[in-house]
Amino acid sequence: MIDLLFFYVLFLVILVTIVIKIIERLTGIKEHQKKLQEIQKKYIESFKSGKIEELNNIMEELTKVYSKVMKHTMIVTIIGIIILIFVIFGFQSGFYVTNINNTTSVLITNPILYNQDFAIYYNKSFLGFYHANYNIISLNGTYEAKLLSINSITNTLPFNLPIININWLNPLILYIILYILVQIFLLIFNIIYSRFIKKSKIDNKNG
User: What is the DSSP string of 67-122?
Assistant: First the structure.
């Protein structure tokens, strides 16, 4: 069962990836990283050859490039933290529990979660999967609000995980998994592009 939240999270992963790639182009991080490696190699060679007088100049150059790399890292880290906070609170908050006529209802105040699916626990015991009727989840019976755990889900897993007592996937776990998969895909694509496609274009141009 794939919930609409799955596509929200997927869109968020793609958006974040695009934003980070744009930042990489604006900051020229790849060029700085390459230059940083060259300076480090130059520093080691100068140190081994005993050219101590060159080390200060190399260290100054190294510090300048390193500060640019760290600036990029800080920007990406801040963006990553902001997105994680949004995923945690944006997709997992906004509930109000009411008890009327011996029936417990969960009122959803977060528009993102309207008409979504949820895994609900009571006192750490699994009650079941529920689908919100617009902004209301109706439970069978009466429950204390403080003992209810309401968790939005993106899809249920094809197997049970008794160790952590869960058989569903929440937005945060899905975001992390999808983000890692996207980065692995981009890494493989870059390797293939640089080793085969780009190299072939260069060879054809030189030939």
Answer: HHHHHHHHHHHHHHHHHHHHHHHHTT--EEEEEETTEEEEEE--GGGTT-EEEEEE
Q: Which 3 state secondary structure label does DSSP give 207?
A: coil
In which band, very low, low, confident or very high, does the pLDDT at 156 lie, cut at 50, 70 and 90?
confident
What average pLDDT does this structure show over 145-172?
A: 83
**pLDDT tops 80 at residue 51:** no
Gap between the Cα atoms of 155 and 165, Å rounded: 16
Digit-coded pLDDT (tens) for 58-90: 777 778 888 888 888 888 889 989 999 999 888
Q: Is 196 exposed, middle or buried (0-12, 13-18, 19+ CB in 10 A)?
A: exposed
Q: Is 12 exposed, middle or buried (0-12, 13-18, 19+ CB in 10 A)?
A: buried
The H or E element containing residue 126 is strand 125-131
Q: Which of 127, 165, 130, 119 is nearest to 144 (CA)?
A: 127
Contacts of residue 129, defined as CB under 8 A and 6 or more positions apart, other chains included, come to 1, 117, 118, 119, 120, 153, 156, 168
Residue 163's pLDDT is 64
12: phi then psi, degrees, rounded to nearest 5: -65, -40
Tokens of 75: 């920007």
Helix, strand and coil in the chain, % to nearest 5: 60, 20, 15
CA pair distance 69, 31, nearest whole angstrom: 10
